[in-house]
Specification:
alpha/beta, Rossmann fold, four-stranded parallel beta sheet, 47% helix
Length: 350
């Protein structure tokens, strides 16, 4: 039932207006609707047509994408998604986890701020779209929206494109809400504490301590770094802060980058190659891998790290491979995100 009412002292034909609220809109990368060819093709087409992701000239990139890549890749990507698909709910793990995070954060915000706030989530690619959720918030009376890209580290292909889509959605609104965007939180002490706790808990459950903790981040072309993208530096700082918080020296932890795509040189070392080198050349037979750039487990962690990268390590002679899950909807992560949200609500909500 709508709580919209005609404003006091307004004429009788004035449209109903909902009580003013503040919207908190979480955003993640996105997910296909299903694992079949056409669902995958639609999702990959939207993702790989984004100039923030692939910035080659359209005249050069689109024929290659439409005629070659999108003819073949939906089959292989669909198979990868199928191997991790949440069959019970008919959706990807990223969708399940992001919804769980949103529900828990909504509970926290409701306890703190009552009906002053509305918490929801959207995806940059696929569904639920950013546009649909901005529209829903405006319809519900949100005159302010705090937009929170769930990427600890800034990158043009993640944070920036999510922000682009948010502001495109605002452009369509007649009564445009005031907006704020949460800045990257890669060095936030509560985020580092949550990462530290996840490592310590994982190590406590491993019979033999790993020889190395591999901190794997999603990669990007080195060219982006040279153009001024701060992602690489922010990743390195997260690893350093995590190492310091754990009280370790540099021989126990290393930074790598995964998910290389296309012919360009990407940030190195590549995770898939480095784990093999550790096993083969340095005799590191027991490793653990953590992926702090992802706020929720997804295809890049559950399939790429826990299957492809694990296989690379084991084929090179590695014996014990431990994947440490993302922070997901764990209590420490939710409390960290809630604290970041409250900090960004200052001046809007007392």
């Amino acid at each position: 039932m709508s709580d919209a009412r005609r404003p006091e002292n307004a004429p009788g034909d004035h449209p109903n207006v909902s009580p003013a609220k503040t919207g908190i809109l979480l955003a993640n990368l996105g997910t296909p609707d299903n694992t079949d060819y056409w669902s995958m093709r639609r999702y990959l087409n939207e993702f790989l047509s984004d100039r923030r992701v692939i910035d080659y000239p359209r005249w050069k990139w689109q024929p290659l994408l439409q005629l070659i890549i999108l003819t073949k890749r939906p089959f292989s990507s669909g198979a990868a998604y199928k191997s991790i698909w949440n069959e019970e709910k008919g959706e990807s793990p990223l969708m399940t986890i992001t919804r769980d995070q949103t529900e828990k954060l909504a509970d926290v915000m409701r306890d703190r701020h009552g009906d002053q706030v509305m918490v929801d989530f959207c995806m940059r690619y696929g569904n639920p779209s950013t546009r649909s959720k901005v529209r829903r918030m405006v319809d519900a009376g949100c005159t302010r929206i705090l937009f929170f890209p769930l990427y600890p580290h800034y990158a043009g292909a993640t944070s920036a494109t999510a922000n682009d889509q948010f502001f495109r959605a605002l452009m369509e609104e007649t009564w445009q809400p005031t907006a704020r965007v949460v800045e990257p939180y890669f060095e936030n002490p509560l985020f580092i504490d949550a990462l530290t706790d996840s490592v310590e808990q994982a190590y406590a459950n491993i019979a033999a301590r790993p020889d190395m903790l591999v901190v794997s981040y999603h990669g990007m072309p080195i060219r982006y770094l040279r153009q001024g993208d701060p992602y690489h530096c922010q990743c390195q700082k997260t690893t350093r802060l995590l190492r310091e918080r754990l009280g370790w020296d540099s021989t126990q932890i290393t930074t790598t980058f995964q998910s290389v795509f296309g012919p360009e040189e990407w940030l190195k070392p590549y995770t898939v190659d480095e784990v093999a080198r550790l096993a083969r050349d340095e005799g590191k037979k027991k490793i653990a891998v953590i992926a702090p750039a992802f706020s929720a487990d997804c295809i890049e962690t559950l399939e790429e790290i826990n299957e492809e990268i694990r296989e690379s390590f084991e084929q090179a002679g590695g014996e014990e491979f431990t994947y440490i899950p993302c922070l997901n909807d764990g209590d420490a992560h939710i409390q960290a995100l809630a604290a970041i949200i409250d900090d960004n609500l200052k001046g809007w909500i007392g």
